[in-house]
């Protein structure tokens, strides 16, 4: 025996390849140096009844392929658990709890959640359920409790009936301000001159901009306050829900006699930041004009209120709408630029030899990101806050010498945002940014062949273009579902638009925007802002060009809420699994969305706060009541991508009713009580802003009480009756004022 080995034994093989020194009967485990015996070939087994593979070139059967794939999935799941990737599912468990709470038809009993959580803990302690499912279950339970906890700290009673009169109030925040009007949040609302007392915490107010005001001022005026409006369509943005958790109990306007009765006192950081943002925005407006000034406001100080609808539509159609929303791209350019410049400068300075240059540059990048977040509106700007958290984790990993771009860091950032502002998960901004970051980090983690470092400028430029295109493609695919659900719009050439725009943004708009802000104390910004404005104009030219190329290619799907649930589940799968198995979740989501995720257009839409009633007539809609150009009608037209005519063809109106005899059903809008007796016997659908009498025997009656309770009504004819949906669901929940 030489070296203590038997003849024919396998030599150590640390590369995980099968050893040739020990014959075909041995293979090497890639985790150790030990040679492990492999199972014998089927033909040499003692069990002669076992099936024998007679033709080694024969393809495996479908059952064998399924078994191999199943084993591969199990191994991938085990590898993910061993790598402690279960933590990546914690934010998804929190999301599940939040969604379940918000979807309940009634408010749960206070004792229900603690009892259920205690039961899960006891079952886990006594080993009756596995620990890992118990952790996710408890995370979901905690997510379920987050909204009630947030409500206890910040929520408000909701105004149920309009209020008119003189009030005093304190300005908490000025949301936006133009030359003609101002939008602000006020609190400490106190009645004067016999006005009705209100129990709301805060209100959102529109006022003329002729009186100089700032945050912290105490004002008095004649107000007209109204209940916060419900969703304009079933499943649309729910202003009542978000206003309740933000402590805003009413919307209103100043009707007259606005005056400041006491100025803001003392120093407040939020007030100083707000004044700084307004000052920077005014400097931008003094040099730039039109869309360039509006987008400059948005990209520097985070105020998008001046961007026109036309510009928004062009930017969305070209896939560039994310550019004027301060998020990861902008913060990465600013923070990454500060990091790179300081690191390069210190590297060229001989006295810095031996210094931790990379860590010093990381601190500078973190400070730059924090300053930009402050200008963008602070934590209230969810995309900017989420991106700053991610950059903080990345630079923190640099400081401690850890890997920066990991799915664990994405999970930490998501958990922090969910804990700070749980209602934000129902906003498009959170969903879009979360999906994009998960997809980009997941794509970064996928295994790939090592490549040699590019040499020469052409190779480096080609690599940068490829990386930009791949990044845009991955982010676009990840956010496609959420964009289609919230905006009913896709950007088929978004990758092309982003490729054309990114050099302008990276080398013109953002650098000269930062330099302009830094030069403002010196009065040099008028020389730099025009260059930034030129870049914005070129970006708009690119958006217009790409929009023109996209004509005929765009799709406008109408998705159901089930599509979002499927999308979040696929995103959770993608975040949890390592390797190529993570792509199976999104791949499975495609047929599921195709079968269960699409919705239909209604046949009738009834507004709540206006008189509008739209009835479908072929491929378009017509108004049985109301007028075009109103907010609700414009939203309906944009959402369903159909024209709404000013008058419904074939409708007949008199002083007491409007009638429409359609090909499928008959509709009557009752204007006077005298018409009920006749129209209730004739129509399939009765709509009235009055209280319908008990004797009205029409199959469907929607009167003033039903509209007050349910808000906007969505109806679709199914052949033998109407499917009815209301925008104000779960009317007993605390964010729903009792409007009956």
TrEMBL record:
It holds the Pfam family DUF4131. One of its GO terms (cellular component) is plasma membrane. This is Competence protein ComEC. It comes from Devosia enhydra. The chain crosses the membrane at residues 86-104, 110-128, 135-155, 314-340, 360-377, 389-419, 464-487, 499-520, 527-552, 558-577. Residues 1-32 are annotated as: Disordered. InterPro entries: ComEC_N, Competence_DNA_uptake, DUF4131. Residues 299-576 form the ComEC/Rec2-related protein domain. It is found in: Cell membrane. Its main location: membrane. It is a multi-pass membrane protein. It comes from the Bacteria. Keywords: Cell membrane, Membrane, Transmembrane, Transmembrane helix.
């Amino acid at each position: 025996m030489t070296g203590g080995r038997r003849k024919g034994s396998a030599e150590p093989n640390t590369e995980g390849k099968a050893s040739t020194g020990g014959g075909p009967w041995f293979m090497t485990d890639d985790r150790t140096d030990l040679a492990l015996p492999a199972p014998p070939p089927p033909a040499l087994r003692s069990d002669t009844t076992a099936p024998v593979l007679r033709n080694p070139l024969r393809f495996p059967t479908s059952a064998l392929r399924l078994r191999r794939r199943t084993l591969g999935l199990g191994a991938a799941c085990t590898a993910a658990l061993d790598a402690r990737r279960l933590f990546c599912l914690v934010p998804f468990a929190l999301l599940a709890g939040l969604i379940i709470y918000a979807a309940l038809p009634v408010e749960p009993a206070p004792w229900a959640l603690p009892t259920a959580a205690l039961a899960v803990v006891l079952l886990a302690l006594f080993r009756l359920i596995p620990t890992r499912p118990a952790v996710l279950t408890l995370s979901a339970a905690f997510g379920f409790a987050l909204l009630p906890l947030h409500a206890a700290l910040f929520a408000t009673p909701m105004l149920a009936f309009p209020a008119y009169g003189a009030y005093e109030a304190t300005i908490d925040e000025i949301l936006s301000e133009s030359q003609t009007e101002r939008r602000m949040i006020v609190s400490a609302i106190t009645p004067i001159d016999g006005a009705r007392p209100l129990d709301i915490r805060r209100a959102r107010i529109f006022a003329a901009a002729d009186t100089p005001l700032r945050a912290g001022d105490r004002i008095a005026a004649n107000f007209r306050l109204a209940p916060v409006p419900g969703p304009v369509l079933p499943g649309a943005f729910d202003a009542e829900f978000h206003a309740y958790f933000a402590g805003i109990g009413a919307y209103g306007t100043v009707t007259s006699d606005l005056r400041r009765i006491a100025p803001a006192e003392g120093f407040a950081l939020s007030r100083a930041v707000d004044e700084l943002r307004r000052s920077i925005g005014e400097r931008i407006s003094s040099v730039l004009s039109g869309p360039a000034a509006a987008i400059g406001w948005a990209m520097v100080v985070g105020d998008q209120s001046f961007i026109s609808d036309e510009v928004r539509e062009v930017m969305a159609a070209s896939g560039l709408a994310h550019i004027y929303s301060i998020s990861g791209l902008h913060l990465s350019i600013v923070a990454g630029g500060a990091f790179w410049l300081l690191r390069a400068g210190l590297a060229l300075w001989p006295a810095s030899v031996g210094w931790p240059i990379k860590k010093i540059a990381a601190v500078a990048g973190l400070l730059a990101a924090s300053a930009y977040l402050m200008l963008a509106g602070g934590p209230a700007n969810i995309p900017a806050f989420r991106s700053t958290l991610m950059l903080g984790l990345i630079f923190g990993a640099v400081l401690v010498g850890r890997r920066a771009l990991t799915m664990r860091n994405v999970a930490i950032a998501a958990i922090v945002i969910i804990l700070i502002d749980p209602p934000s998960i129902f906003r498009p901004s959170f969903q879009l940014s979360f999906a994009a970051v998960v997809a980009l980090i997941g794509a970064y983690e996928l295994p790939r062949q090592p490549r040699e470092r590019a040499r020469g400028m052409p190779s480096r430029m080609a690599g940068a273009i490829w990386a930009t295109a791949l990044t845009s493609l991955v982010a676009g695919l990840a956010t496609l579902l959420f964009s289609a659900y919230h905006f009913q719009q896709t950007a088929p050439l978004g990758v092309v638009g982003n490729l054309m725009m990114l050099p302008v943004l990276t080398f013109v708009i953002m650098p000269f925007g930062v330099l302009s802000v830094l030069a403002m104390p010196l009065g040099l910004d008028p020389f730099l802002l025009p260059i930034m404005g030129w870049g914005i104009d070129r970006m708009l030219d690119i958006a217009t060009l790409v929009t023109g190329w996209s004509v005929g290619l765009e799709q406008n799907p109408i998705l159901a809420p089930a599509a979002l649930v499927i999308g979040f589940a696929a995103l959770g799968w993608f975040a949890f699994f390592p390797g190529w198995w993570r792509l199976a979740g999104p791949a499975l989501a495609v047929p599921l969305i195709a079968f269960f995720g699409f919705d239909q257009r209604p046949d009738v839409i009834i507004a709540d706060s206006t008189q509008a009633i739209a009835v479908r007539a072929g491929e378009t809609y017509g108004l049985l009541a109301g007028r075009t150009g109103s907010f609700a009608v414009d939203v309906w037209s944009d959402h369903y991508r159909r024209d709404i005519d000013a008058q419904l063809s074939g409708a007949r109106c008199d002083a007491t009713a409007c009638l429409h005899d359609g090909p499928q059903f008959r509709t009557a809008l009752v204007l006077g009580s005298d018409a009920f007796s006749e129209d209730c016997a004739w129509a399939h659908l009765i709509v009235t802003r009055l209280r319908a009498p008990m004797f009205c025997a029409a199959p469907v009656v929607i009167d003033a009480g039903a509209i007050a309770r349910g808000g906007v009504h969505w109806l679709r004819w199914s052949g033998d009756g109407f499917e009815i949906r209301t925008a104000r669901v779960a009317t007993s929940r605390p964010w729903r004022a009792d409007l009956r």
